[in-house]
Amino acid sequence: MTPYVLVLYYSRHGSVLNLARAIAKGIESSGIEARLRTVHASDDSNDMPYPEVSLDDLTQAQGLALGSPCRFGLMASPLKSFLEQTSTSWLKGELIDKPACVFTSSSSMHGGNEATLLSMSLPLLHHGMMLLGVPYSEPGLLKTESGGTPYGASHVSGTTSENTLSEDEKAICYSLGKRLGQTALKLTQ
After folding, report:
1. Whole-number mean pLDDT of the chain?
2. Which residues lie below 8 Å from residue 9, measured CB to CB, with a gap of 6+?
3. Which of 35, 70, 119, 188 has most Cβ atoms within 10 angstroms of its Cβ?
4. Which pLDDT tens digit goes with each residue over 58-84?
5. Residues 6+ apart with CB under 8 A from 24
């Protein structure tokens, strides 16, 4: 099987999907496949741009980028629901020592981006994954006037998702994805 990094996201209005695609470009620049998958929510339409994730997608991946919109400083319920189904993987230690990162989008500058990133990190740490952030060697992190933190990539979408990813946000996503891909490759050798 060809090694890949799973980019698992939930996106209601497209902002997190745009982050996922930008991170995937960074992953693939490192020479490993980025496999985008999503989770399904009961109130979603059936025209999702990527397939729904399976537990096998997660356990067979060499690394994970996990993305969700901010929901009061927490990840969205559909993504949390999927992670709650991973107890068997946790018991078997199937994700131990795999690299991971997190990303998010909120509608406002103080909409809980950092809290969401930190709360999304907890299940990954419980699984024994190695959490990667964005080092300050990424210039976009110092210049950004919207999203981006050392905890992971982020975006401020606006209350009606009118804001597209800024150039700094794109650079941060690319850098984080590239770091994740490079780390996954090093660990598979």
Report:
1. 93
2. 16, 17, 19, 20, 36, 37, 38, 65, 66, 67, 68, 79, 103
3. 70
4. 999 999 999 999 999 999 999 999 999
5. 7, 34, 36, 65, 177
